[in-house]
Amino acid sequence: MADAYAVKRSLYQHAPRQGKRVLLTHLDIELTERCNNACIHCYINLPANDDQAQARELTTDEWKDILRQAANLGTLTVRFTGGEPLLRDDFADLYLFARRLGMKVLLFTNARFITPKLADLLARMPPLAPIEITVYGMSPASYEAVTCISGSYGEFRRGVGLLWQKRVPFIVKGALLPPNKMEIAEFEAWAATIPWMDKPPSYSMFFDLRGRRDSDARNRLIARLRLSPQEGVVLLTRRPEAYRKDMAQFCSWFMGPSGGRLFACGAGHGGCVDAYGRYQMCTLLRHPDFVYDLKQGSLREALTEVFPRLQETQATNPDYLARCGRCFLKGMCEQCPAKSWMEHGTLDTPVEYLCQVAHAQARYLGLLAEGEKAWQVGDWRQRVASLAGKV
Ligand code: SF4
Ligand code: SF4
User: Fold this and answer.
1) Across 12-16, 104-108, 135-139, 349-353, least confident range
2) Rounded to the nearest 5°, which phi and psi values hold at 102?
3) Which of 16, 243, 329, 330 could form a disulfide with 374 if both were Cys (CB 3.0 to 4.6 A apart)?
4) 83 CA: nearest ligand 1 atom
């Protein structure tokens, strides 16, 4: 009970004062890049016992300072992610600190390190948002073919069981990979029994390359694990009516060329602090010129002085300007400066795989004919309006 009162008191103390501008409503925090799994498709993970990475990570007090700064800027939600955030010994301390600042906590985890003690804490002081657990397979064989860690499946099931038993809300998501892609029906049937799943699980399938650009060999493996654009469309459209309805609405809001402006997205309005205190404009963008070192400054400086300037960056690559700059699929396509950086080491190079995925979806929706290129289409407004009119 004492915890609950502390939260209420703190909510009052940190509520945005009338007339005071809220600069930051949501903050992502990547507590560590290390992970207790070694997933074949992972864009970030370092080994759990990587001492050099661990030594560079922010200390408990440094994280608390950042959380305090965020609360003073009006932040209501913080997402703890990684790597595996539960690998940090001080996770419970940081979690309680954020909750006592009045923040809702989103936790992304593989659930292997959920202990009875942690489940009790999460039940006593709820995060106020369902915990999000990624599932890598429905059997030890498939799960561990992805995570490469013997015994990880049993630990994941035990962690999930503890949350369930303590009635701590959680949802599950899938990562669709060759070892588990025959298990979709089994996964969805199980997911439907979880009391907090109010819709079918989402999936990662168009996997990102290594965000630190640290391994060509890993990148080649990740590229081989990706679904083909056609396979991706089959999966995305397995509930065709719902897909068409969602996409018609989405397209009527977000489609249209972005011209030469690189950041046609929310980058720099929230952002992500990496494990070492570098504030990124978004979770994926690790280009060294587009991060701000919080050991040298504050969240406020980044948000008011640095990010607004970076958000104005213009593309200069003629290929990008001729394609993405003129492409009406920009809202639907995952092409962005972060993806370009991961794939090509520049911010403005079209990513061919993502281009094919967007074109395959657009063809399915009737926005493009076979062989058409989206950047050559002039009557895109009518096409989008026609899609909206059909559902
Ligand atoms: S559990 Fe997540 S962070 Fe860890 S290796 Fe797998 S995908 Fe990467
Ligand atoms: S569909 Fe192709 S051209 Fe259009 S934004 Fe995506 S990558 Fe660029």
Assistant:
1) 12-16
2) 90, 10
3) 329
4) 3
Distance CA 241, CA 390 (A): 11
Q: Give every CB contact of residue 96 below 8 A, 6+ residues apart in sequence.
A: 3, 121, 125
Q: Is 82 in the pocket of ligand 1 (CB under 6 A)?
A: yes
Q: Please report the pLDDT score of residue 22 as a whole number.
A: 75
Ligand 2, atom 8, residue with closest C-alpha? 324
Phi then psi dihedrals of residue 109, to 5 deg: -150, 160
Rounded to whole angstroms, the Cα distance separating 37 from 119 reads 20
Is the CB–ligand 2 distance for residue 339 below 6 Å?
no
| DSSP 8-state code for residue 88 | S
Decide: helix, strand or coil at residue 291.
strand
The CA 337 to ligand 2 mean position distance, Å, reads 12
Instruction: Give residue-wise pLDDT tens across range 144-200.
Output: 999 999 999 999 999 999 999 999 999 999 999 999 999 999 999 999 999 999 999
The atom of ligand 2 lying closest to the CA of 328 is 4
C-alpha–C-alpha distance, residues 74 and 60, integer Å: 21
Q: pLDDT tens digit string along 199-243?
A: 999 999 999 999 999 999 999 999 999 999 999 999 999 999 999
Pocket test for ligand 2, best of 262, 265, 375 (most atoms within 8 A of CB): 375
Which atom of ligand 1 is the closest one to the Cα of 110? 1
Give the residue-averaged pLDDT of 320-348: 96
> Which secondary-structure segment (H or E) carries 77?
strand 77-81
Decide: 85 in ligand 1 pocket, CB within 6 A: no
**Average model confidence (pLDDT) across the chain:** 94
Q: Which residue owns the Cα nearest ligand 1 atom 6? A: 39
Q: Which string of DSSP letters, residue by residue, matches 205-223? A: -S----TT---HHHHHHHH
382 Cα to the center of ligand 1, angstroms: 42
| Residue 361: both structure tokens together | 């979806």
